[in-house]
Amino acid sequence: MSVSLARISCHEVRLAPQRICRRAFLNIRHNSNTVVSEAEQQNLTWPEYLEIRKSKRKWETAATIPACILGLMGGLAYFGSLESDSTKPIMGLDPLFFYSGCTVSCMGLGYLIGPAIGAAGWRMTHRRAMNLIEAKDRRFHQHIVKNRVDPTAQSATNPVPDFYGEKIGSLHQYRQWLRDQARFRRKARFAEE
Description:
Number of strands: 0
Helix content: 55-70%
Largest sheet: none
Number of helices: 6
Structural class: mainly alpha
Strand content: under 5%
């Protein structure tokens, strides 16, 4: 393990070599909170970024399925073990229907929490490149905001196509998204005339 001499302060040089190595190792500055330079941003190309974005979405989906199952099982375990009297309604409903609704809502809660768990897991595995990814994320969302259509012109026959650009996972899909936005603009403009 070598430590650059620029990071060792001069007052640490002593006669005991083990002590120097230990102190030098403890005095290493970790540059995790530095600003991403323009040269580093060039290292992450758009196809790589879109592939990373697609993998994040897969992680979120993969975490949603077990979270739904766990929510359903938890709801079944809790509400299935409650004793109920069928002659006494709960909030005007039969207890069986009420507890069934509560069990399904536990599954819905798992559906809502699953993507957050998946995103947290994905962020933990991609910690090193997070500054690059977040910088590219900001640029991507600036492109989306600049190129997306005005949603006030939508109708039942002409809905807005993927307003937030969530389904973009490659350059081909981004170009298709741009074409869909242009098509929506044309339809909305000709519908007004």
